[in-house]
Amino acid sequence: MGGFFTGRTLTGIGRDLRAGRESARGLVARVLDSVDKDLNAFVTLDAEGAEAAARWADEELASGVDRGPLHGVPVAVKDIVDVAGLPTGMGSGHFAGHVAEADAACVTMLRDAGAVIVGKTGTQEFAFGGSGDVSVNGAVRNPHDRERISGGSSSGSAVAVAAGMVPLAIGTDTGGSVRIPSAFCGIAGFKPAHGTIPADGVFPLSRSLDHVGVLAATADDCRVAYHALTGPAEAVPSLLDGSSGGGRAGDTPYGRVAWIEPPACDPEVERRVRALFPDAPSERIDFAGLRQVFLAIEYSEAYDVHAERVAEAPGRYQAATLARLEDAGRMPGWRLVRALRERDRYAEEIAGLLDRYDLLAMPTMPIPAPRIGATEVGLGPLTALLVSLTSPWNVLGLPALSVPAGTVPADGGGELPIGAQLVTRRGAESLLFTAAEHLTT
């Protein structure tokens, strides 16, 4: 399964570039050689544009211009994010042949950091779903078992990283779409606080829930990429001065952790992730209520984006996407009004929880990756399960990180990756990365 970038870190790649052991042009060539078309991770490769950008990166580094840790690093971008001159197809027949005229804000940030855009990665149609197998381009396949879903909607970005085709990819996350495929594919995925990375130039699904995030092999690579794009995080108050959320100093090197009981979870997944936090006290949150808030907001905002297309050209959608949009169109307006009121109440409740704890921990996914085309699993409907543990943190706009948490036995034999999810308050993102470092060492 491993490609050229498997086992390589952004820090190590940067060191090799600056020492002359690698060149940006050579890395682009490695990307192009590493692409496994059977996995269907990429929908567009931009060899010419990437080679030109890499040549410029090499020239800048040779002349002493250093834009930071992403300078000369190849990066893949999800295909709902505009890259000037490249198709943005959204996985849909509605945008066949559409070419972006300008870069999305996050792509401009990547270029300013010296990154080399190598192509666009597959997405669930319009990013509306978490399976990664509903797209005009076909299913993106899990590199650990090609008959299983990759997760979505940032499916191609996760697979490109997991298979070692690229060291870093950009995704978007409305209900878990960075973290879901990261967990299923055995990599790290980081959703920053809402609005931290701007979404201008990203085709919207649900504007108040949409986040731009990063996917990489490790949490530390996510940290490097995040800070390269946004600048170093603000200092987090000392855990010793009582101002970091009231956590008791010394509970862990990264503050006090609460284990959030999942409402429904494969027992082996829960056991293995729980074992990473053996001393964390258990807490419960209202996952069911938060899901209703999430659905009301997502469906209302998604239908606002798609109403005219649904009316004028429904046949251009994939059947599963159209069915969800038609359901969204039938949602009464009072559901959204209530959801917005309830979101404020839940925000207060979770803020209170984060006054007592520094981090909240739980599985990222309640199950390992199911087979392509599955709609039901033992715990219930797949659509609901995929976002059951991830969507609350989009509703509340909080930073969330999924990190690899080992593997569990798969039905039919073999092992499949699972993920642990960490959540904190806005401004304390560094605690997520510190915790991940301790969990993986």
Topology, pairings included?
Layout: H1 10-19, H2 24-34, E1 42-45, H3 47-62, E2 74-78, H4 105-112, E3 116-121, E4 141-142, E5 145-149, H5 155-162, E6 168-173, H6 179-185, E7 188-191, E8 211-216, H7 219-230, E9 257-260, H8 267-274, E10 282-283, H9 287-312, H10 319-329, H11 333-356, E11 359-363, E12 376-377, E13 380-381, H12 382-386, H13 392-395, E14 400-409, E15 415-423, H14 429-439
Parallel strand pairs: 2-3, 2-6, 9-10, 9-11
Antiparallel strand pairs: 1-3, 4-5, 6-8, 7-8, 7-14, 11-15, 12-13, 14-15
Helix pairs in contact: 2-3, 7-14, 9-10, 9-11
Explain this structure:
It is a single chain. The longest helix has 26 residues, at 287-312. Residues 234-247 have low confidence and may be disordered. The strands form three sheets. Strands 1-3-2-6-8-7-14-15-11-9-10 form an eleven-stranded mixed beta sheet, with helices on both faces. It has 441 residues and is α/β, with parallel strands linked by helices. It has 14 helices and 15 strands. It has helices at residues 10-19, 24-34, 47-62, 105-112, 155-162, 179-185, 219-230, 267-274, 287-312, 319-329, 333-356, 382-386, 392-395, 429-439, and strands spanning 42-45, 74-78, 116-121, 141-142, 145-149, 168-173, 188-191, 211-216, 257-260, 282-283, 359-363, 376-377, 380-381, 400-409, 415-423.
List the main descriptive attributes of the protein structure presented here:
441 residues, alpha/beta, 11-stranded mixed sheet, two-stranded antiparallel sheet
Largest sheet: 11 strands, mixed
Tell me the Rg in angstroms: 21 Å
Secondary-structure element sequence?
A: HHEHEHEEEHEHEEHEHEHHHEEEHHEEH
Taken from the alpha-carbon principal axes, the silhouette is globular
User: What is the strand arrangement across the widest sheet?
Assistant: 1-3-2-6-8-7-14-15-11-9-10
Q: Number of helix segments?
A: 14
Low-pLDDT windows of residues? 234-247
N- to C-terminal separation? 23 Å
* Rounded mean pLDDT score: 95
